[in-house]
Amino acid sequence: MKIDYLSRGLYVRLLLLLVIGLGLPILTVNVAHTQDEAGSKDGPGTVVAQAPVDKQPAKTDAVATAESSTVPGEDFDSDPFEPFNEKMFWFNREVLDRFVLKPVATAWDFVLPTQVQKGIHNVFDNLAVVRRVVNNTLQLKFTGAAKEAARFTINSTIGVVGFFDVAKEGFGIEQSDEDTGQTFGVWGMGPGPYLVLPFLPPLTVRDGIGYAFDVAMTPYIYFIPWYGSIGITTTNMVNERSLNLDRFERVAESTVDLYGAVRNAYLQRRAAAIRQ
Q1: Are the beta carbons of 48 and 42 closer than 8 angstroms?
Q2: Is 176:145 a contact under the CB 8 Å cutoff?
Q3: C-alpha atoms less than 13 angstroms from C-alpha of 93 in its C-beta half-sphere
Q4: pLDDT by residue (tens digit) across 81-96?
Q5: Domain residues for 180?
Q6: Residue 203 pairs with which residues in a beta bridge?
Q7: 27, 241 in Cβ contact below 8 A?
Q8: Residues 139-162: what's their mean pLDDT?
Q9: Concatenated DSSP letters for 88-146?
Q10: pLDDT of residue 216
Q11: Taking 90 as the threshold, does the pLDDT of residue 37 lie above it?
């Protein structure tokens, strides 16, 4: 009976983390990826592409990567579930974000200095080392896997459990970010339909399956109670939204078709990441 109880607890924990944890990329996808698309339309110098320096989130390399790697002329307009997706996109943005996430993140931003928020971001980013090492290895990017192991060792010790990115700032070791969705793409799996679900970020079928595997590779979920895991994941989500408050507003106010911009930029960035 004890084994059955523990098994059920683990399944519940993974399911809840999948639902709540998937909410985190709402802001990173909607903000950073919309910037990619907006930047390509508006050209250099647009106000959409830059946020104030002191509020730049710690992880902005994906924006430059998508801009430089996008192949001109690729068709990302196929969206068989568009009517449904648009309704879900509206719900996530106009209900979930406007009335829940943004107010909490605004209070968080008022209480915590930006540097502390960036440090918290670094801690959670450091905890994603298992996902990055595993997927670098599965893609035969052994140099990337070694770099991730080195980054984790340095940042977990000298960097005070990852609060400071000493590996990058002090040793010049850049992150080699890979996830399971990318691995599936490298192995030849197609993306499948684009899909937006309530409480979740924009995804494709392939990336949704991959994200479930990524959540399972989160180390702390196996060592703390499920409600603790949910609390930690929620903290991460609020902190990320707080880091992107100004940027999100600039993008939302400056983009006419926000749904289309997010969709196209997301698909372009994922295609570019797989080609690398």
Answers
A1: yes
A2: yes
A3: 18
A4: 999 999 999 999 999 9
A5: 2-275
A6: 195
A7: yes
A8: 97
A9: HHHHIIIIIIIIIIHHHHHHHHHHS-HHHHHHHHHHHHHHTHHHHHHHHHHTT-HHHHH
A10: 95
A11: no
pLDDT the model gives residue 36: 44
Range 197-212 average pLDDT: 90
End-to-end CA distance of the chain: 48
Tokens 């507003």 -> residue: 249
Query: What is residue 50's three-state secondary structure?
Result: coil
Choose among 146, 212, 213, 184: nearest CA to 274: 184
Residue 174 pLDDT exceeds 60? yes
Mean pLDDT, to the nearest integer, of 212-236? Answer: 93
- Report the alpha-carbon distance of residue 24 to residue 99 in Å, rounded: 16
Closest CA relative to residue 124, chosen from 207, 28, 205: 28
pLDDT band for 254, please (50, 70, 90 cuts): confident
267 and 194 Cβ atoms separated by less than 8 Å: yes
Q: Are 90 and 198 in contact (CB under 8 A)?
A: no
Number of folded domains in the chain? 1
CA angle 110, 116, 118 (to 5 degrees): 105
Mind giving me the DSSP string for 118-132? HHHHHHHHHHTHHHH
